[in-house]
Amino acid sequence: MAKPLKSSRIFVRGLWDDNPVLRQVLGICSTLAVTNLLVNTLVMNAGLIFTVTMSCLTVSLLRKYTPMRIRMMAQTLIIASYVIIVDICIAAYLPDISEALGPYVGLIITNCIVMGRCEAFARNNPPWPSFLDGLAMSLGYSAVLLTIALIREPLGFGTVLGFRIMPAGFTPWTIMIMAPGAFFTLGLLAWFLKAYFPQVTETNKER
Amino acid sequence: MKKRLFSIFYMFLLTLFFTSVVSAVKLYNEERIAMNQEVKLLRIVLHVLGIAVQEGASPQALSQVFSERVKEIAVKERPLYIGYAENGETITGYAFPVGGQGFWGPISGLAAVDPSATRLLGVAFFKHSETPGLGARITEAWFTKQFEGLSLDPIAGEQKIFYLKAAGTGQAANELDAVTGATGTSRAVESFLNRELDHFLKGIWPEVKKKR
Q1: Residue whose C-alpha is closest to residue A194's, from A25, A34, A12
Q2: What is the pLDDT of residue A1?
Q3: Which pTM does this prediction carry?
Q4: Smallest CA–CA distance from A69 into chain B, residue
Q5: Which pLDDT tens digit goes with each residue over B73-91?
Q6: To probe the interface with A, which of B27, B29, B108, B138 has the most A CB atoms within 10 Å?
Q7: Residue A164 in domain
Q8: Which domain does A61 fall in, by range?
Q9: Contact pairs from chain A to chain B, CB under 8 Å
């Protein structure tokens, strides 16, 4: 963390090398919960991207003033505020999706990715790199969720974003709608990544 | 000491600032959220009464149908929704709120009975905090559909109007499928819905009959 990181490096880390879901195995709960329909995934991703980037930015802006011993409390407050704002906005403008996402938007507060990035990066780095780091990490999270949703929705419902893509005779796989479907998909993805791109996993020791 | 005081002061200011922002956002959107919930209630009342509405109908269209086909009255301080046929005169059913303690938190829903209160027209749950994918499946169509047409006369010698049994093991007409993997939620639904239906039949229905 000592030397400043280049923006491109921050992005490569968030999206690939230190991908929060596949490499750091964070945010699994929401990954399992909101990936059965692409539309839910997209809204969840938007919420997480907003929360992580804004929280990282705020924590970084306040990093010189926040007393060390209460920093976790301050971070939690900042994160919770952004999450509640997201939750209110979704409930106001996208009521159906708000219902489908249920408690998971509120649970972004406890999503380890947010606090993890604030603690590991934002509190020691200037605002701009922190903002980029938050953006990169949440995009990394989003990319994995979208991939899983793109596997689950066609197999579980036969659709993508509600449009039928599977042939008429296709029998939906009920397991793909349920959490175990995501568990298998996520496991296979992580295994694939570890098996074919093993060299980068060793660079990540931040947890 | 000074450091500690600063910590308290700092946290106080930070909390003040962020809660103000959150409150402002909440206040600004409050009306909209309340409207969303009202529309949701209208939709569910129409649904349990079996009044068809177009898929994706606008909130205005919904309240239009609602005002034409449903009359809301209060019986014993509880709301009762009377459903009318398209001619606006024939009563097609009565809907009333039901609710109780679920596995994780309170569950609210609606039930509707036919004009003679001998059969259920339908039930729907709209507010709960059950586990998504498990207990929350009580809101799914396969679960609520089982209640349509259920006889409200308890079978002789039985105390409950219906029972929830492990999926596929129900024998009698009043033995419905529970949600697999959500025994707690299923038990809770069986308990409070039976109680609420009983309460309606014994406490509210006689009043409704008098008013007709």
Answers
A1: A25
A2: 46
A3: 0.72
A4: B7
A5: 888 888 999 999 888 788 8
A6: B29
A7: no
A8: 10-152
A9: 60
